[in-house]
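Response to reviewer comment R2.3. The reviewers asked that we include at least one raw input/output pair. We reproduce the pair for Allantoin permease here without editing.
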Amino acid sequence: MSDSPTPDTVSSHHGAAGESVIKAGYDERLTNQDLAPLKEQKWTWYNIFAFWMSDVHSVGGYVFAGSLFALGIAAWQVLVALVVGIVAVNILCNLVAKPSQIAGVPYPVTTRISFGVKGANIPAIIRGSIAVVWYGIQTYLASVAFGLLALKFWPGLAPWGDVEEHGFLGLSALGWAGFILMWVLQAFVFWNGMETIRKFIDFCGPAVYVVMLALAAYLVAKAGWGNVSLDLSVGEGLSGWSSITMMISAFALVVSYFSGPMLNFGDFSRYGKTFGEVKKGNFWGLPVNFLFFSLLVVCTVSAAVTVIGTDDDGNIITDPVHIVDKIDNTTAAVLGVLTFAIATIGINIVANFVSPAFDFSNVAPTKISWRTGGMIAAVGSVLITPWNLFNNPTAIHYTMDTLGAVIGPLFGILIADFYLVKKQKIVVDDLFTMRPEGAYWYRNGWNPVAVGATVVASIAPICVVIFGTAYQASFTWFIGAALGAAVYWIGMKVVPTQLIHDASVEARITTDIEVDAAGEIVVDVPDAEPAVTSTGEETASS
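Raw output as returned:
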């Protein structure tokens, strides 16, 4: 007769998100082949570096970098704020990367450590919802490039680009064609799995730089180096205390810009060979890459003022798609438009497709796979009609800033829990168990302290969004992160254990993983508590 599997029986499963390892004791309500720990982590520092290149090289990233140099402060002040801000992002990304890298699981699974195996759906749904909105907006922005390209070759299509004459739900027929084309291209890359996405960003990151450098060289050569300036501000610049406050705002804007991908960076750091490889990739992909990208952008935009002029309102054009569209060189314009469209596909997939795929899969692992979760996000991005949202400054301000205000608390709770409360110890097997004695069961699968900290820490930044100024709103992430970390840490210290865990169950651990300063797993943990085997017998920890 055949032997029945024991709770420790391990089986390998190859899913779209990678090959994973599932133990027989893992609860199916928490497990599928995409959420389970990876069998092998293969990504090197270059793959992480390419990830950040793809995350930065987009129409939105281009406009954002250019806008920093138009804040009215001196170029050196912008550069200082850029360097300090991106170094802070680098440090924060290293912090959030560690739990996912050592456990080989995506972001929503690591949130089970602090929120509980059921409570983790709160951060998953919040982050997934934000990604859906941005996915739609980025797809729309990239689709504009195809519309401009079509009109350049076939001017007769102009009537089809008029939303009043041929429009539906606020978007012209030509706009719909470009949006659907972009939607399908992104879905095709995503559907082929994480390995295809890795190859895509490995190629596109450097390729986009080649075209960006060529575009910058072309514009600078035509404008003359003497007409290139790092100052894009119009009118009198700021000085004194005003310039200092604007520098602080610029720093905050840099961190806030990366807050989304920073929160769910574990979705990618889980693939890193070692934590050292992840840190190296972050260094080259963030401080080095973003600073070089920003300088390249400001030189290009500045030279473009001389070559193509300003827009109809006299403002500097920072949108790269519109810059290349106005270049009097068809080949350069076509190459430029296609490049920035591809670049936006890259950031959309890594920042706004992969994240909700894992997040929504975490909600119902048996019914929603990684692919299904991604397609839910893709369909949702159409239903919200992102062009209407993007073209309404008030609506997008309150929608995105309110959702973004909650990202800070989620980040603060994750970091405070892993580093201050759990002391970098992960009970990997208990991430996938519904047993009441599991380390992350808390009260019926929910950690009331984490839920309460999220609510309390979100109130202040949301109030700032609604009642504060635009300047104050740039600090909502910091307010939320600090409050989230503080409230959670204090709560785990002062709230009675019987209120955090089910009164009848004493939380025990089945596995104890400790990580040294270099990010390597320590096998022997002399001071560890007795471990519990899958059969419930206590053994000495080894």
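The longest strand covers residues 10-15. The chain is about 60% helix and 5% strand. Further pairs are available on request from the corresponding author.
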